[in-house]
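Worked Example 4.2. Consider the chain below.
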Amino acid sequence: MTEQLPATSVAVLGTGIMGSGMARNLARSGLDVRAWNRTRSKAEPLTADGVRVTDTPAEAVDGADAVLTILYDGAATLETMRQAAPALRPGTVWAQATTAGLDALESLAAFARENDLALIDSPVLGTKQPAESGQLLVLASGPNAVRPVVWPVFDAIGSRTVWVGESAEEAAATRLKLVLNSWVLNVTHGTAEALALAKGLGVDWQHFLDAVEGGPLDNGYMRAKSAQLLRGDLEPSFATRTAEKDARLIVEAGRRAGVRLDVTAAGAERFRRATGAGHGDEDMVASYFASFDGEPPEDAP
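Applying the procedure from the previous section yields the following structure tokens:
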């Protein structure tokens, strides 16, 4: 495979919490950007940034140098790419950024082979604010020959790209993303549970923060998430129902590897209960509400 030129046009399939910010930054970097979203009205605001919003995935990918998918899960990604298939050119570079899990990635890789696409396994680490500011961490694995095509894409959406393999089918980037997400989700639950216990026991959370300050138990992410919950700000940077999906992908990946992930499995159940209590579309720190049977104490966030 000969080395290819950097992309000048890109199709973004999926403009939710992450995809909308990514599409804006791609357009602001000077790329020709076309975007599709299942609910078109959610993509329409992107036109103010020069993004062309299309009615179908096929319209978005037609003539694009690169395709970026950032959808809910692997099944949604495969369905969308099947809809795009009639307009995909052989050799098109496909940067697959959805957190799809290992089983789904195998299906996506098979689709890429069947349609002669150059697949790059490229999940991203970060949430809404980093996506909007172009500060995501891109984890990538794919052939050296096609990497130049996505350099302008990854430079526009991220502060750094870490290449971890030369074959997307080996899923090195997805496996790393699952490990990273396991840590993020478990720290979120630890914060939510500790704060719930503090409320239940009548402990001032500031006393907790003062006790751990500057020591090995201190954690900037914990401070940010607890502050978000205490001020009642549950606008999602990462939604609870999506966090449950990712947690179950992590548990399944562990099962495939012969690794039991009891904490992550229990965390998935916390997210499920929080979603059942009406917090599925709120930030995943709403795991807090899974600590209570019914309503939290009156003085709780």
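The first strand starts at residue 9 and ends at 13. The beta strands are 9-13, 32-36, 52-53, 66-69, 93-96, 118-121, 124-125, 136-141, 158-165. Compare this with Example 4.1 before moving on.
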